[in-house]
């Protein structure tokens, strides 16, 4: 009775507002718009691996031959532009879902994203100068002039020339903001552009051409007024932040929103909450992975990008600012072998189950589980609203999140390297890709943990099913 009341409370009071939020136009645009970035993230991850092959002799050979720089170029122009893909994709999906031509909105969002940032980069000399400077290296990567030596030579020049050489390089795009650091800004801009663009079209703010004009031409004139208004407002905002606050909107969003939110998502508490909520929603029949993925992707993907940048620079460590909780932490640990990390349940059904129901479902679930899919268990066993298996279903991801966080925090395994292995990549293989052989071994340990946690609860449920089956057979034979 208590359980039914609690289930009714969750289904009637808790889930409806959450589902209402998840299904709002902005969140739908965010969730579906980010999908357009996935090919570039995954392909870019391949280039990231090639530019940082963890075999010293091969890495040195690639660097000396120049191929390492080539792979780096490909990584920068794919994975490295993640905020660009986000800003375009989110506005595109928002307007598409409203029934209008979406591509002009996506391109308008990109233009606004660029307008709202300083089109400049720090002079490379700044990073090379001083005792902590990187100095100047040759093509082989050897330092030919230390940071102190660079500073000494610069100090001998006239002051006007020093100022000129150290001034920011203008009329160029700073790729820092096109990557992970610009993600929250890209999300906000994409949503606002999609919303305002559709509002103006619905209000009739468009140029209507005669029917004889080809549709592809007419669509561009339809987009002209909304795009013009959005870009003009973006320009005025840029002017305000530059002239009044001596900054740009992207830097402000990064400092005030993205940095604290990334810190929250990268905390142990954040990891445990995410790990608990995924099976919690599934237990009541709602797609927990979809809900939490939509909510957390805007924070965890930038964490992944930051780690990828450190890995690419050969500086991947917590001391250098690497994150513990990334999108791969979510995909390849919290959801390993499916929501609830149910591989232990699969192993039980294959080797220890006595009931026909568990045996048959175990055979069906084995292959999908290897690719992190467990819907046959969620709805067939079922795990949804099943009190026998609720404890391990909730507990396993939480314990895995806790222990994985701690083994990275204490340096037992390295931080995740930012490589975005597709969520369907089988366990151990995905561990090797996202963190090397130590992470692959840790994933194998996680599979054992899942088996140990599920086994006693699965045995109790199996006995319950077996008793039901035997009672049914006895009844039919009478």
From TrEMBL:
Pfam families: PTS_EIIC. GO terms for cellular component: plasma membrane. The keyword Manganese does not apply. One of its GO terms (molecular function) is protein-N(PI)-phosphohistidine-sugar phosphotransferase activity. It comes from the Bacteria. Keywords: Cell membrane, Membrane, Sugar transport, Transmembrane, Transmembrane helix, Transport. Residues 10-457 form the PTS EIIC type-3 domain. It is a multi-pass membrane protein. One of its GO terms (biological process) is carbohydrate derivative transport. PROSITE patterns: PTS_EIIC_TYPE_3 (PS51105). Its main location: membrane. It is found in: Cell membrane. Signal peptide: none annotated. The chain crosses the membrane at residues 35-55, 75-95, 102-119, 175-197, 217-241, 261-283, 333-353, 388-412, 432-455. The phosphoenolpyruvate-dependent sugar phosphotransferase system (PTS), a major carbohydrate active -transport system, catalyzes the phosphorylation of incoming sugar substrates concomitant with their translocation across the cell membrane. This is Permease IIC component. It comes from Liquorilactobacillus nagelii.
